[in-house]
Design a protein that fits this description.
Blueprint lengths: L17 E4 L7 H12 L6 E4 L2 H10 L6 E4 L5 H4 L4 E4 L13 H19 L6 E3 L4 H5 L8 H8 L8 E5 L4 E4 L9 H4 L2 H19 L5 E5 L14 H15 L3 E6 L15 E4 L2 H12 L4 E5 L5 E4 L16 H19 L1
Parallel strand pairs: 1-2, 1-5, 2-4, 3-4, 5-12, 7-10, 8-9, 8-10
Antiparallel strand pairs: 6-7, 6-11, 11-12
Length: about 350
Amino acid sequence: MPISNITKANAAVSTLPLALSIGDPAGIGPEVILSAYHELKGLVQPFFVVGGFDVLRGCNEALPVPCKIIAIAEASEAQEAFNDGLPVLLGADASYTPGKPGDEGAALALHSLAEAVRAVLLGKASGVATAPVSKSQLAKVGFDFPGQTEFLASVCGLAPDDAVMMLAGPTLRTVPLTVHVALSAVAGLISPELIQHKAAIVDAALKRDFGIASPRLAISGLNPHSGENGQFGDEEVRVIEPAIEALKSKGIDAFGPVPGDALFTKIMRPQYDAALCMYHDQALIPIKALEFDQGVNVTLGLPIIRTSPDHGTAFDIAGTGKADANAMIAAIRMAGQMARARVRA
């Protein structure tokens, strides 16, 4: 069955194992997955990797981590195998060539991502945690999406704006309302409808997936000093403030617009559960500055659970033993927590 034909009705969330996509095998994905298993074994619900058995075995030999790698033929075997080693679902594979990306590795990354999502949609896994991919490498093997978030929306039968990227760390959650677009285009893309639509998705997801009964949403300004009453731009008065009032009328606890230079101060951060930002860097810079090693990219609004470490492939350090697995560990933990939250909901 083509993955695009699988419906949202198949996406039952349970205590099944998590599926991990291997990411680009020439990046740090394989080694942070191995380290994550070593750190999390016995502490979280089981997980398995989709494809890349030879890659993971090669990585383990090159950078020894106390981790046995176990081949499985079906996702259902992961529960039992997890106690003895890292389960890897046999399928597509590649050579382990750290720091040397190529078409073979990109094809494995795409296969692993698609099949991990398929496992969740078919009710064989409770969620997916995706290791980092190279968008430019994926494009060479037919991946026609700006990123994994847009791909996930498509295979779940949703419009791109129905999948919302949230960056989450231990003390901060941020959401970029516009993502992979030029900064010069942002002002023309922001609208009251866009802000309301994405804020509603964030509000619902914080309730369902994070157990926050009454989420507080801070809405950022676009211009310096939130426009200073129109002196430095009128988007706050013309677009953002009407959206906030509309959200309040719908029972969503939103406030702002908060100037970007004040939104992430020590005083402000405890006052909200998520900050909705007007553009990519406004949301990602504070997460990466404050919580880089534990930052998780979460896709909200989907019928499935998806998390990912908030860093890239790091081809330059792949295979050197320098990669930090904490963000991958955080992504796996968060996916498991979200799965349990959906069961309780």
